[in-house]
Amino acid sequence: MVKNQAMADALERFGENRFRSPLAWDMVGKNLFAMAIEGVIFFSITVLIQYHFFFKARSSTSHLKPIGEEDEDVARERQRILSGGGQSDILELRQLTKIYKRKQKPAVDRLCVGIPRGECFGLLGVNGAGKTSTFKMLTGDSMVTGGEAYLASKSVTKEIDEVHQNMGYCPQFDAINDLLTGREHLEFYAILRGVPEKEVCEVADWGIRKLGLMKYVDKAAGSYSGGNMRKLSTAIALIGGPPVVFLVSRTNSKHNKNSCSWS
Length: 263
Prior knowledge:
four-stranded antiparallel sheet, two-stranded parallel ribbon, 6 strands, 37% helix, ABC-type transporter activity
């Protein structure tokens, strides 16, 4: 393009008009056309991936061994769920199973549990017990191998968009933009949550006060300590008052003075 313009300017002095449009096909026109086609193709691929179009159907769980002896309360909860007693729970996991590719042993093996509305429930276990895999299935980050889960009566396997509208999520690793302030994060997520524009600032201020971020909220999030990062992520998860909030904890990295995040 620069060469074309320079030649046109030089020849114009001799009375010749050799200027060619930079959008001509043999200049940048073909490149712009290719970029437009690529944009459509890659956008379509992104949408298909988002809706799990390329994922295979759920694997069979028929090869799993029968459930062994369980603690009395675990067996009682399984029986309650399988008999339909968890239908009124805000979160119901019914035989939820996850088997990773090229693995025989399930990461999550036919988990049955129901959590009533308004209850705080802790999912505890050693490393490799399946806690993260369970959260990934419930949030739609990972495909369910077998069984089913319902959040606010919406199926995790069939109605994931509706599930997302009824949940807040504080992931294990903070999804924070280092360049945005804490206030900007909260206002941004309030808008994404559909909070009316006139109430966005009020909702953000509520999250700031609730998690004790007043001192740092107008500083770039990249300067926050690990504890304040977790507070900000928790405040984001609470925006909009979802009926279910998942808090994936890194408790071993938090100090006692930050325990207000869990109150």
